[in-house]
Amino acid sequence: MTIIVVVAVVAVAVYAVATYNGLVRRRNEVEEAYRQIDVQLKRRYDLIPNLLEGVKRYFRQEQDVLTEITRARSAAMQPHSPREQAQAEARLSGAIGNLFAVAENYPELRSERVLLDFQEELASTENKISFARQHYNDSVQAYNTKIQSFPAVIFARAMGFTEKEYFEAAGPERESVTVSYD
User: Fold this and answer.
1) To 5 degrees, how large is the angle CA 26–CA 31–CA 37?
2) CA 159/CA 151 separation, integer angstroms
3) Is the peptide bond before 82 cis (omega within 30 degrees of 0)?
4) How many whole angstroms separate alpha carbon 110 and alpha carbon 114?
5) How far apart are CA 100 and CA 113, in angstroms?
6) pLDDT, tens digit, for every residue of 79-96?
7) How does 59-73 read in b/e, with b if 16+ C-beta sit within 10 Å?
8) pLDDT at 151
9) CA–CA distance, 27 with 140 (Å, rounded to integer)
10) CA–CA separation, 49 vs 54, rounded Å?
11) Among candidates 59, 40, 182, which has minimal Cα distance to 123?
């Protein structure tokens, strides 16, 4: 009888250690995926000053457009929860989209190299951000499933593992910004 109890205790201990290590691995994957979003967002933020510098001579009458981009960029660079980050990014994307819409009124600007380069870099960066967000959400889904599944849920709650928030935009922020120079 003693041997059965010892084997049961050892089995529970091994399972608890394996579950804990698995939860830590999943949590670290989620955190790493979020850092990848930050890397791509930083790249996007770094592009914006070059764009503003290149177009500001054309936008003397449109200072509010440039100011809004600067304000939205500053707000987006602040630390946020995934939901708040998505909303801040949507405001920044909207401000950039507004700049491109206003640029339609300046034919000579539409052919400027800085604007064309920015448009190309922005499209590339947006694709990378989208991929990083998808990877993050996949990691969150795997992590949340792990901590909600039985019997891991028992250990997860006891060890302080909590659900992670998905990166998703809500309402009108869900719509992507279309940048076009046709």
Assistant:
1) 130
2) 13
3) no
4) 9
5) 14
6) 778 888 888 888 998 898
7) beebeebbebbeebb
8) 87
9) 8
10) 9
11) 40
